[in-house]
Amino acid sequence: MGLALDTPAPGRDAPRTNVSLKIDAAGRTDVGQLREHNEDTFAVADQHHLYLVADGMGGHRAGDIASKMATDTVLAFFDSTTREDATWPFHYDPSLSPEENRLLTSLKVANKSIFEESVRNSEHRGMGTTVVGALVNLSARKVFIGHVGDSRCYRVRDRGILQLTQDHSLLNEYLRAMPDLPQSQRDELPRNVITRALGMTEFVQVDLRADGLRDGDAFVLCSDGLSGMISDAEILATVLAHEDDLAAACEALVKRANDHGGEDNITVLVFRVYEPEGASTRPPQRSPHSLEETRPMLAPIAAEPGTEATLPPAPPADERPRFGDEVEDTVEATGPVKLPS
Questions:
Q1: 165 has pLDDT over 80
Q2: What is the pTM of this model?
């Protein structure tokens, strides 16, 4: 879903430069108002420019074990693959970028670890976790997003917000199959039933997406304890109100979710990219395949209820990326929606 404020931010229409971007990040997690313990986990790995949010599920406190295993395993994989001669436990897909391969493989390794633990330990049987991860290449001005489940990634740019991930949920499966489903029937569908998670099966399908970076872009990773309690418009307004203090933005977002009932654990991570002040600039040397904007991917997605969907034109066939059998790269259909003044 895309939202935009009426007034564009000044200075954001300037051409991009080839000056390397910097990045700031902050995160916060909270048990919420109704749950007894917190099964969410987040990770800020500045050394890798990697950012993660996981929302665990399972009895006997196994959900928090699953989410912690997910983030720990992904970080351990990144630590162990900094060398060029590192061993890769899964097939390296030459049609994907090194960053995409690294992020994809780390999530597959995490899935395998959680699944094997759930099979081995009866108290952890059935545990799983959603996950959303963002891997940033500052010099190339690209961000790579991988996710499984209904934890989300949003991009805040030019006073607008865009959801970059598509929930793997029963509701969205219905909307894919029946995009004209009446609103009354949509309202009857459960919104918290997910169709994909790490650890539920031996192999997992991961959605990947690549996006271009601009000076001032902010990205919000969150569990459904946030996105299920407050609107995209509220997320946008809160991030803009605290764009110079990301820790305060996270705190304010968690407070808003709790003020709306806090029905689930709440986790949010916000990172922002920016050009250093006083950096010299010159026009960038762009290739025809530059990721200035989000790259169109394989499958159109049904719009969120109440929005008008529009899809960007597909790229020429020779420019479309190729993916492995277990990778589905998607782009969300969005319609412009104005925030009230």
A1: yes
A2: 0.78
